[in-house]
Design brief:
Blueprint: H1 2-8, E1 13-14, E2 18-19, H2 23-35, E3 37-38, E4 43-44, E5 52-57, E6 63-69, H3 78-87, E7 93-97, H4 102-111, E8 117-121, H5 125-128, E9 140-144, H6 145-152, H7 159-171, E10 176-180, E11 186-190
Parallel strand pairs: 1-3, 2-4, 7-8, 8-9, 9-10
Antiparallel strand pairs: 5-6, 10-11
Helix pairs in contact: 3-4, 6-7
């Protein structure tokens, strides 16, 4: 979604991913081309299908239930992504999500060139756990209330709690934190 939106806005964007050799991969490739997203640095799997995510949303836009098959991303080891990282060394922002294995997230954040913003999307509460021990490598962290609570150790029930959780994450080394509170909006903590 981020890559497609940036592509639609005319921002040069590359998406490093892993695709199966299935019909879903053809759909992803066609959609990426339509939105101006460069997928040339992505790799293919002979063993697993392209990832799928299906969500049912409430009328308010909040997720009611979701089903995901992201097993293909387990194949995105540091060895698989390193060639792509070298090709993207001139990019201003690297956005990583926690669908990747923890060791791959760590390798990407370690390889990030000086001056490049290392942004991370926590994705889900269980997957956010992969960020423990890596927070001080993250320049910009995107979390929802539950993910913020998991990573900060502070319950998030409202705006004041979200700010306290964001400050706790900043104290652990995160540069800037965006906490999404759903229909209540979002908050950004940056430079204190």
């Amino acid at each position: 979604n981020v890559a497609a939106t940036l592509g639609r806005l005319g921002v040069p964007v590359a998406l490093v991913s892993r695709l199966g050799r299935d019909e879903a991969a053809a759909t992803v490739l066609a959609g990426a081309a339509e939105f101006g997203v460069d997928l040339s640095l992505s790799s293919r799997s002979d063993a697993r299908p392209t990832a799928r995510y299906i969500a049912v949303l409430e009328p308010t836009g909040e997720m009611m239930v979701a089903v995901a098959d992201m097993a293909i991303y387990d194949e995105m080891t540091p060895a698989v992504v390193t060639p792509a990282l070298q090709a993207l060394a001139d990019r201003a922002v690297w956005l990583v999500d926690t669908n990747l294995p923890r060791e791959t997230i760590a390798a990407i954040l370690a390889a990030k060139p000086a001056g490049t913003i290392g942004a991370v999307e926590a994705v889900s509460t269980p997957k956010a756990e992969k960020l423990r021990g890596l927070l001080d490598r993250i320049d910009l962290l995107f979390v929802n209330a539950d993910e913020a609570a998991t990573l900060s150790g502070r319950a998030v029930r409202g705006e004041a709690d979200a700010e306290a959780a964001a400050r706790a994450l900043a104290d652990r080394g995160v540069g800037s934190v965006v906490v999404n509170l759903g229909p209540a909006g979002a908050g950004l903590l940056s430079d204190g």
